Amino acid sequence: MIASRYYLLLTALVMLALVSILLSLLSGSVELPFPELINELLQPSDTLSGQVLREIRLPRTLAAFTTGGMLALAGVIMQVLLRNPLADPYILGISGGAAVGALAAILFGLGGWWLSSTAFVGALVSVLLVFGIANKFGRWSVTRLLLTGVVISAGWGAVINILLTTSSTNNVQSMLFWLMGDLSQSSVGGGHYLLLIAGIVFGLLASRSLNVLIRGELVATGLGIEINSLRIALYFSASLLTATAVTIAGSVGFVGLVVPHMLRLLGARDHRILIPGSALLGGSFLVIADSIARTAVAPQQLPVGVVTAIIGVPAFLIILRSTIRK
After folding, report:
1. For the chain, what is the domain count?
2. Separation CA 11–CA 288 (nearest Å)
3. Model confidence at 326, in pLDDT bands (50, 70, 90)?
4. Ramachandran sector of residue 31 (left: φ over 0; alpha: ψ -120 to 50; beta: rest)
5. Which residue in 200, 193, 163, 190 sits closest to 178, CA to CA?
6. Residues 248-261: pLDDT tens digits?
7. Which pLDDT band, with edges at 50, 70 and 90, does 138 fall under?
8. Which of 100, 169, 240, 311 is the most buried (most CB within 10 A)?
9. How far is CA 145 from CA 130, 149, 214, 247, 265, in A?
10. CB contact set of 86 (below 8 Å; sequence gap of 6+)
11. What's this model's pTM, rounded to 2 decimal places?
């Protein structure tokens, strides 16, 4: 009975993912009827509709789905690692490091590959900095990791403010758009898909250990789980997923925080279901948010991070209220 309910949930999430991608491909300033969409996907042409689909909508939709899946998956891992329901992928300062790298590139007039590369390098610097300080002398603990991440995040925030206040008006607008999350220039490749799949596979392989670890360190140790090795693997896997997601779309909030709680509210507390379910729902959530961002005030576009915040805040409050009532 329980297994059939889980299969039903995963099937519903797959259907939601397909519907969200379809709606994203259909929505936009250029009208693209459903029959023409199917025809362009099966038999590409050089028409205006075909170019819009292949060069703009499809890459952006795939980037949104991949980014959302990575952030939701990283959110699940962070909540287990820190044993904190309010943990999200950005809590340890990864987005701050990426933001400093990206804003520095914008300040020097760099874009494209340089922007993504400097953001990724900044994220990795933050990951290594937090891990190095938290693991100094081998004294690893969740409290030390969390406090280190919060302090490093505050430091990155100060650097970001300095960059914003010392930049020209044109650069500031680009910087703010990146900080609020932007998919307008985003695209993903085979490496991004492989990373998301690898994250799901790793989560499934570690799901039994995650089910035990969430109950406490003493229980996990008593059942023979190597806590330190598991923590390090969880930290670096979540950090890599977050760093890559931030590189693709900037700082998109609430996906990694809200999506895992939505699934837990639906009864998916077993990480064998929560891991793939989060990737599917996170991708669908960000695709829907990006569709709204592209069409709500067309022809202008909103930063996708603004839409995720507008949706995420009331959603999280509803989830919190439901959890308290239970």
Report:
1. 1
2. 18
3. low
4. beta
5. 163
6. 998 898 999 999 99
7. low
8. 100
9. 7, 6, 17, 23, 28
10. 257
11. 0.92
Whether the per-residue pLDDT at 39 is higher than 90: the answer is no
Tokens of residue 81, six digits:
């690692």
Domain range for 31 is 2-325
Tell me the CA end-to-end span of the chain in Å, nearest whole number: 22
Among the listed residues 254, 267, 272, 256, the one whose alpha carbon sits nearest the alpha carbon of residue 326: 267
CA 261, distance to chain mean position in Å, is: 14
User: 301: left (phi > 0), else alpha (psi -120 to 50), else beta?
Assistant: beta
Write the pLDDT tens digit of every residue in 69-119.
Answer: 999 999 999 999 888 888 888 888 898 999 999 898 888 887 777 888 899
Q: Tens of pLDDT along 162-197?
A: 988 888 777 887 888 888 888 888 889 999 999 999
Cβ neighbours of residue 304 closer than 8 Å, sequence gap 6 or more: 64, 180, 181, 182, 183, 249, 252, 286, 289, 290, 293
**CATH number of 89's domain:** 1.10.3470.10
Cα separation, 224 vs 277, in Å, equals: 27
Tokens standing for 161?
Answer: 């403010």
Q: Pick the closest to residue 160 from 120, 214, 119 (CA basis).
A: 119
